[in-house]
Amino acid sequence: MTDVDVRGLPCPRPVVETKKALDAIAEGTVRVLVDNPESRDNVRRFAESQGCSVEVSEGDGVFRLSIVKGEAVAAEVAPPPVQPDAGNGDAVVLVGSSRLGVGDERLGDILMKAFLNTLWDYTPRPARLLFINSGVFLTTEGSEALETIQMLEREGVQVFSCGTCLEFYGITDRLRVGLVTNMYDTVDSLLSASRVVRI
After folding, report:
1. For position 32, which CATH number holds?
2. What dihedral do alpha carbons 12, 30, 34, 158 form, nearest 10°?
3. What is the pLDDT of residues 103-132, one digit of tens each?
4. Is the dihedral of CA 87, 124, 185, 179 positive or negative?
5. Confidence (pTM)
6. Is residue 159 part of a domain?
7. Half-sphere exposure of 117 (CA within 13 A, CB side)
8. Structural domain of 6
9. Which H/E stretch holds residue 14?
């Protein structure tokens, strides 16, 4: 068993260190120690995306993830990540602000809502929406665009909000659509996409 203690490390280090440990073995168990729910979820999601099985336990404020790689999990490989519907494209949209454009703030709010509504009507839809910086306000309670983003998710568009950004603004508990992600997943999504649209 390999132990990886990533308590106190900022995003995306817990995922990066977990990846290094998994890459170093053909099969076996890696035990990862983290100290917050965001890191727990990010490491678990990453490990499952690599075909590993993951068991999580908690005690004394520490999350222990037991990650099994190799033949031991061949019969119980985690399901693949949610894929977009066949009618969706493979583009990734990176939303870096809660407003669209530079200028009047209210106009920026109106334009962003119109953009997301148009995205809903457009074919093909993107495969994934990534919300970073103040863009995470769009996926949280009180957002005027929340209903549209929820409809996009129901139609197979994957929705991710930056965990560091949610934490920075103190709104992690207000997330209402999609999943919390980390910088490793964000970089992977951007570099593996055939097309990235930044707004």
Report:
1. 3.30.110.40
2. 50
3. 999 999 999 999 999 999 898 999 999 999
4. negative
5. 0.73
6. yes
7. 8
8. 2-76
9. helix 13-23
